[in-house]
Amino acid sequence: MKISAKISEAEKEKRVWWSFEYFPPRTAQGLQNLLDRIERMRGWGPEFIDITWNAGGRTSDLSSELVRTCQSLIGIETCMHLTCTNMPEEKVDIALKEAKAHGCRNILALRGDPPAGQDHWSSVEGGFEHGIDLVRHIRTQYGDYFDVAVPGFPQQITLPPEEFAQELKWLKEKIDAGVNLIFTQMFYDVDIFIRWVKAVRDAGITIPIIPGINPIQTWNGFLRATQLAQTIIPQSYLNVLEPIKNDDERVRAEGIKLVSRLCRDILSANIGISGLHFYTMNLERGTKMLLQELELVPRVEVIRPLPWRQSLTPSRRTETIRPIFWANRTQSYLSRTENWDEYPNGRFGDARSPAFGELDGYGVWIKQTKDQAAEIWGHPVSIAEINDLFAKFCIGEVKALPWSDQPPSAETRVIASQLARVNTLGYLTINSQPAVNGVHSGDPVHGWGPTNGYVYQKAYLEFFVSPSQLNTLISRISREPLMTYYAINNQGDLRTNNHSDGPNAVTWGVFPGKEILQPTIVEAVSFMAWKDEAFELGRQWSRLYEPDSPTHKLISEIMDTYFLVNVVHNDFKDTNLIFEPFLMDEKLAKVDCDVIPNGGTTNHLDISKPSGLDKIINDVARGLVLS
């Protein structure tokens, strides 16, 4: 979606919006850490982010890769910087082609800084001399596909009148060449900014102006940034910050107050500006503190337009339905389905398509190394220890499982105690969702989609279980007419009581002026495809241990003999109903413990006397422990 459309929508709704800027790091580890940070900061509700191109285009490939990842995997609208520095026309065309392929609809076109080691800017052979040349080239090649932005410099208002008039003339020429937006350089003097905006408007420039806001992180960082950009610092800032310059915490705290006052003055100045663009410097704490100080709260429909992470690449923008099986492995799902034939009417594609990806071509992987496996999971040598690992993951005591790219969600924590209990009983859960009966779409835990809607969910569980326990469970489910299941082992033997040809919608939403959306489904063919990946992840887990170790043999045996099962309770009004067939094991175990015939002894676990883990689970159930 174009930034100009997002701004227009916000103005109609009379709300404040915000966005973040990041720059490509220099190392592979830095890149991974930045992606993790962008993922976290996405939850703060930015309308979009932008990625810089760096001086001299040194990080051009990395910038393009960041845009691709943010658009496709993280699912956040991205603006890509593009400079003229060291960029011949063919390299510019490659960058624009890749941006379009990634679904990026927004370009910030700049002349750029001089190449490293040079004092003066000069174009390369076959390149562009001025920013306006780049703007014209984009419009010639791509028409109005992209929103094109250019930089604006508020401090130009302090230039001699004839020089400022010339700068305004050049800016107006860029606008007339097809520019949609202006991003300003950072500033701290609000009076300078307001005067500049009014002068720009008086020159006949009416496109949106986006003020660039730089949070104050440290004294030295503040000085370096302002000196590099030759930014005017109001004396009031120096009076507050200089006496405490050696105390980073106080500088950040006082700097947040100063910059938040700047933001409030901008938004209340009656100059038609309702958004703020934060230069994060790839840091998160200062930006988060500033948002909190301004009391800017993310809208659920921005951070969760659908209950799963939406991809914004061209082929997937209209995708509105996915199987639930890949809920914890978004990147794997996107890779598998990258070449599906089509998404008819924005709906989930048919898994029987010949374009459905085979497992081997998409690199199933576990993030963890051997050392990390030992640190996270230890060296379990019994089924009981495996059960405890899975239970501890549900309550936040273990930070990862091979089947999850992320820790348990807030929604999972709603049923954490029940999940932990079924895991201790031998049902190794890898995916779940609670029942939801008409929660408001703005709900911070369950909400998603447009405002003023209501969302619903059927309770869902997915787990590994031994064949003997599965037989017992199926006999219990057979007495529950509203429960459906699929079970499959590593050899592909499928068992089910669901003989419908169509998918089972397990999540849906009702919103004003729209048809009912059903974005998450359970479907037999896709489940059978997911089976390969689920068992392969277990086998990879075993390979993190020495081949002759008890842990390797134990995990391998589980993957060779257990069934992968999913269960849906089709009564969405009560979350606890789905757990009843599982927790019967707990009740029966307690009976076995209480009744010991002929005064003998028993080897059954006496769960009437809680172990340390049982106590934690009970505390979670009572709300005494927060995951």
Provide an overview of this structure.
The protein is of the alpha/beta class and 627 residues long. The protein folds into two domains: 3-298, TIM Barrel (Alpha-Beta Barrel); 322-621, no CATH class. Helices cover 41% and strands 15% of the residues. The protein contains 22 helices and 19 strands. The strands form three sheets. Strands 7-6-5-4-3-2-1-9-8 form a nine-stranded parallel beta sheet, sandwiched between helices. A five-stranded mixed beta sheet has the order 10-18-17-13-12. Strands 11-14-19-15-16 form a five-stranded antiparallel beta sheet, sandwiched between helices. Strand 4, helix 5 and strand 5 (147-152) form a beta-alpha-beta unit. Helix 10 (248-267) crosses helix 11 (285-294) and helix 19 (524-543) runs antiparallel to helix 20 (550-561). The protein is elongated and about 90 Å long. Residues 342-346 and 591-610 have low confidence and may be disordered.
Helix-strand category? alpha/beta
Most strands sheet: 9 strands, parallel
Domain module count:
2
By DSSP (H or I, 4+ residues per run), the number of helices equals: 22
CA(first)-CA(last) distance: 36 Å
Number of strands: 19
> Which residue ranges are poorly predicted, with pLDDT under 50 across at least 5 consecutive positions?
342-346, 591-610
**Average pLDDT reading:** 87
Large-scale geometry = elongated
- Percent of residues in helices comes to 40-55%
Task: Tell me the β content.
Answer: 5-15%
Whole-angstrom Rg? 28 Å
Strand order of the largest sheet: 7-6-5-4-3-2-1-9-8
